[in-house]
Specification:
The complex is a heterodimer of chains A (308) and B (416). Helix content of chain A is 77%, strand content 1%. With 308 residues, chain A is mainly α. A two-stranded antiparallel sheet of chain A has the order 1-2. Chain A is globular, with a radius of gyration of 19 Å. Chain B is of the alpha/beta class and 416 residues long. In chain B, helix 2 runs parallel beside helix 10. The model of chain B is unreliable at 23-29 (pLDDT under 50). The chains are: A mainly alpha (308), B alpha/beta (416).
C-alpha cells in the first residue's frame, strides 16, 4: 500500500513537470532538464550509498566515461543516438566492473579512499590523454541526436521530454531493483553484513553487482549530460562532481530514490539561481547542509518517513 | 499520516521549484537599453583576475557615461567560476533569460572552446577579450566570435626574433605550466627561434598545482644560455622567488611569456624579478598618453595596478562600443552587429593601434618588456616595439594553418 503511494507521488511529480514544461521560458527549462539528468546520477549513487551502505567518492568516473564516449563518438565519428548510448553504457559499466573488483574489498573510510583514488585516475586520463580526450580543452560541440520523428531534439522542449522519459524509465528500473529480493538483500547488507553472511548470502557478489548497476545508471546520466551540455571536459569527472553528487544524496535522503532526486533539484536551483543574486551562494548551501545534518540526519525526505 | 506527507511534500516542492523557475520572466522591450552580458571568474582561484576584468569593463563604461549611440548600456556580469560547465549555464542565462545583445568575457581556454558551439548555435555576437587559445581564431574559428584580446603564440614569434637579433642566447631551456597555454607560448617561441638558428635544448613542464619548483629547477641543463619561463599568477611569484634562491638567476638570464611578469603578479614579487624580459601586447608602463590615462584611472578606481586583464576588458568593451556606434545603435540586427565587430579599427587604445584580421583576431603591437624598479615599484619597461603583428607573424596564413597546433610534443624537441 505504502509502495503504491510512493509510485503515485513519483508519477504525479513527473506528470506535473511534463505539464508545466511548455509554459516555461527557455532558460528555466534548460535548468529543469539539467536537474532531471543530475537526479538520475544522484539516484544511481543512492543505490550504492543509501541501499547498500557504500559511500563512493568516485561516482563522477562512470558518469564521465559515458559522457566522453558519447562526446567523442558523436563529434568525431558521427555515431547516432543508439550507438552512442550503447557504447557509453557499456564503457561505464565496464569501468564500474573493473573498479568494483578493486573497491569492494574495502568498507567505510577505506572504500571512500579507494573510490576517490580510482575517480582521480579517470580524471587524470581525461586531462592527460590529449589525443583522445582533447585534455583540458574538452570536447565541445556535441550535437543533439538526430531523430526520426518530426520534432528535433535540438529544441529545448522536445529534449526535455526526451530526458524526462529517460529519467522516468531509469527511476522505474531502479525502483523495481531496490524492491526486489536482491534489493532487500542489499538493505540487509547495509544493516548488518555479518548477519547476512551468516544467513548464507553471497555478500561480496551482492555488493559487487550493486556497484556495477550503480555505475550503469551513472553512465546513463552521463550520456544524457553529454547531449544536454554539448560539452564534455575534465570538470565532469573531477572530484567536485563526485562530492556534489554525494551531497545531493545526503541532502535529499539516502535510502529513498525520490530524496536524491529532490537533492539534485535543490542544488541545481541553488547553483544557478541564488548565485545570480549573491556570490555567497556556497555559504547558503553550507548552511542548508548543516541544517540537514543537525535536524534531519536522514535527509529531507528521510525526516518525513520515520518507519521505512 | 506520514506517508501522505511525503506525497504532499513532493508535490509542494515541485510546484515551488517550477514557480521559482517561472518567476523571473520579464519580457524585454525591443528598444530599451543595450544589454551586454559578461562572464568572469569572480569566485575560485582566479577571482582576483576576474575582478580586474570587471573593473576594466566598468571603467570604460563609466568614462562614456554608460551610453552609446543614444542608448543606455546595461552590463550584466555573471560568475563563471573559471569552469566551462558553469560558463555554459551562465551563458544560457544571459542569452535566453536576460536576452543580452552581445556576450563577452571569459578567462580560460577551455571556457572559450566550450562556449563556441553554443554561441554559433544561438547566433549571438560574442567577443573574447582575454581568452587566447590559438585555435579559437585559427583552426577552429567560430563564426560569431570575435577575439578582441590576443592569441597565445602571437607575442612569442616576434619575441623569438628579438632574442635572436639582440642577444647572444642560442641555447635555451624552456620551463612552462603543463597545459595548453604553456604549450602554445613555448611552441610559438620555439618555432621562430629554431628557424632562426636557435635551439631549445630542454622542455620542462610543471603541473598546475606545483608548490615547489626546486626539483624542476634542479633539472635545468648546465650548458643553457638562458631560461624561458611561462608562469601565471601565484605560480609566477613562487617561481621567481625560487629561481633566485636556487642560484640560477646570477648564471642564467630569465626570459618569459607575458603573464610571467604581468602586473597581476608583479606586486607580489621582489627585486628578484628585475631584469626578466618578456613579451606581450600590453604593458602598464607603456608610455603613451592613452595608456597613462587608463592606468591612472584604473589604479584610482580599483586601488591596484592595471594588468593586461584589466586593459583587455577595458579595450574589449570599447571595441564593442565602437561597433555599436558604427551601426547607429541597432544592436537587434545581429548580422550587422557581428559585421561591425569584425570591422573595428581603433588607433588610440591603451595598448596602441588595433585592427582585426579575417579570422577575427586583432592585429596589434607587441612589446618586449624588461622588469625594472622605478619609483620604488616594479614595472614592465618597454624596450622594443613590433608594430602591427598578426597572429601569423610573418608566415603565410594558409601554410601556417596547415601545421599542427602547438602542443606538449609539437614542435618536437630536436635538440633535447
Amino acid at each position: 500500500m505504502t509502495i503504491d503511494r510512493k509510485i503515485v507521488a513519483g508519477v504525479v511529480a513527473l506528470a506535473l513537470a511534463g505539464c508545466f514544461a511548455p509554459f516555461l521560458p527557455a532558460y528555466p527549462l534548460t535548468l529543469l532538464t539539467q536537474a532531471v539528468i543530475v537526479a538520475i546520477l544522484a539516484m544511481s549513487l543512492d543505490v550504492l550509498l543509501g541501499y547498500t551502505g557504500l559511500p563512493s567518492l568516485g561516482h563522477a568516473a562512470y558518469f564521465g566515461v559515458a559522457a566522453y564516449a558519447v562526446g567523442i563518438l558523436a563529434t568525431e565519428h558521427q555515431v547516432g543516438l543508439a550507438g552512442c548510448l550503447v557504447a557509453g553504457l557499456l564503457l561505464a559499466t565496464a569501468t564500474a566492473a573493473v573498479f568494483g573488483l578493486l573497491a569492494i574489498r574495502a568498507t567505510g573510510t577505506y572504500f571512500l579512499m579507494i573510490t576517490l583514488a580510482l575517480g582521480m585516475v579517470v580524471w587524470g586520463l581525461a586531462f592527460r590523454w590529449v589525443s583522445m580526450t582533447k585534455g583540458d580543452n574538452g570536447i565541445a560541440g556535441v550535437p543533439r541526436p538526430e531523430w526520426a520523428l518530426p520534432w528535433s531534439l535540438a529544441a529545448p522542449l522536445p529534449f526535455f521530454y526526451f530526458v524526462l522519459v529517460a529519467a522516468g524509465l531509469a527511476w522505474a528500473a531502479m525502483g523495481v531493483l531496490v524492491r526486489s529480493p536482491f534489493g532487500l538483500g542489499l538493505k540487509g547488507i547495509r544493516e548488518s553484513e555479518s548477519r547476512m553472511r551468516a544467513l548464507g548470502y553471497n555478500v561480496w557478489l551482492h555488493k559487487y553487482l550493486a556497484f556495477v548497476i550503480s555505475g550503469f545508471f551513472a553512465g546513463f546520466a552521463g550520456a544524457l549530460w553529454a547531449y544536454y551540455n554539448g560539452f564534455v571536459g575534465p570538470v565532469d569527472v573531477q572530484l567536485v562532481t563526485s562530492v556534489e553528487t554525494l551531497l545531493m544524496v545526503a541532502l535529499g535522503g539516502p535510502g529513498t530514490l525520490a530524496g536524491p532526486a529532490l537533492g539534485a533539484a535543490v542544488i541545481v536551483f541553488l547553483k544557478n539561481f541564488v548565485s545570480v543574486y549573491t556570490k555567497r551562494w556556497l555559504l547558503i548551501l553550507g548552511a542548508v547542509y548543516i541544517g540537514v545534518i543537525l535536524w534531519a540526519p536522514r535527509g529531507v525526505l528521510g525526516a518525513f518517513s520515520r518507519n521505512r | 499520516m506520514k506517508r501522505i506527507e511525503i506525497k504532499t511534500l513532493a508535490v509542494v516542492v515541485l510546484v515551488a521549484f517550477v514557480a521559482a523557475l517561472a518567476a523571473p520572466v520579464a519580457a524585454p522591450a525591443q528598444s530599451g537599453p543595450i544589454r551586454i552580458g559578461m562572464l568572469a571568474p569572480l569566485t575560485g582561484p582566479f577571482a582576483q583576475i576576474g575582478k580586474d576584468m570587471v573593473n576594466g569593463a566598468e571603467l570604460y563604461l563609466d568614462e562614456i557615461g554608460r551610453q552609446v549611440a543614444g542608448r543606455k548600456i546595461d552590463l550584466i556580469i555573471e560568475d563563471d567560476e573559471g569552469n566551462p560547465a558553469t560558463a555554459l549555464n551562465k551563458s544560457r542565462k544571459l542569452v535566453e533569460q536576460d536576452k543580452v545583445h552581445i556576450l563577452t568575457g571569459g578567462l580560460l581556454a577551455n571556457v572559450g572552446y566550450a562556449l563556441q558551439p553554443y554561441i554559433d548555435g544561438q547566433k549571438i555576437p560574442a567577443t573574447y577579450p582575454i581568452i587566447a587559445a590559438d585555435d579559437i581564431t585559427q583552426r577552429k574559428p567560430a563564426k560569431w566570435v570575435v577575439r578582441t584580446g590576443w592569441t597565445t603564440s602571437q607575442p612569442m614569434h616576434p619575441f623569438a626574433d628579438w632574442v635572436l637579433k639582440n642577444t647572444k642566447y642560442r641555447k635555451i631551456v624552456a620551463i612552462g605550466m603543463d597545459y595548453a597555454f604553456g604549450y602554445e607560448t613555448i611552441g610559438g617561441f620555439q618555432h621562430t627561434f629554431e628557424e632562426g638558428g636557435g635551439q631549445i635544448i630542454q622542455k620542462i613542464w610543471t603541473p598546475l598545482n606545483t608548490n615547489d619548483f626546486a626539483p624542476f629547477l634542479a633539472q635545468i641543463k648546465r650548458e643553457a644560455d638562458a631560461v624561458l619561463a611561462l608562469m601565471l599568477g601565484r605560480l609566477a611569484v613562487q617561481f621567481m622567488k625560487q629561481y633566485e634562491e636556487s642560484g640560477l638567476k646570477s648564471r642564467l638570464p630569465l626570459l618569459g611569456g607575458g603573464t610571467t611578469t604581468d602586473e597581476s603578479a608583479l606586486p607580489g614579487m621582489g627585486d628578484e624579478a628585475i631584469g626578466t624580459i618578456t613579451a606581450l601586447h600590453y604593458s602598464q608602463a607603456l608610455d603613451t598618453p592613452q595608456n597613462q590615462k587608463f592606468a591612472k584611472a584604473f589604479e584610482a578606481r580599483a586601488g591596484k595596478i592595471a594588468s593586461y586583464y584589466s586593459e583587455g576588458c577595458y579595450t574589449g568593451v570599447r571595441w564593442i562600443a565602437e561597433a555599436i556606434k558604427a551601426i547607429g545603435g541597432k544592436v537587434e540586427d545581429r548580422d550587422q552587429l557581428l559585421a561591425a565587430l569584425r570591422r573595428v579599427s581603433i588607433k588610440d587604445t591603451a595598448r596602441g593601434p588595433i585592427s582585426v584580421d579575417q579570422w577575427g583576431n586583432p592585429v596589434q603591437n607587441i612589446y618586449v618588456r624588461r622588469v625594472e624598479k622605478v619609483g620604488g615599484r616594479l614595472q614592465n619597461t618597454v624596450i622594443a616595439t613590433f608594430p602591427a603583428v598578426s597572429q601569423f607573424w610573418k608566415y603565410n596564413p594558409e601554410e601556417y594553418l596547415k601545421q599542427p597546433l602547438y602542443t606538449r610534443d609539437y614542435p618536437p624537441c630536436k635538440h633535447c
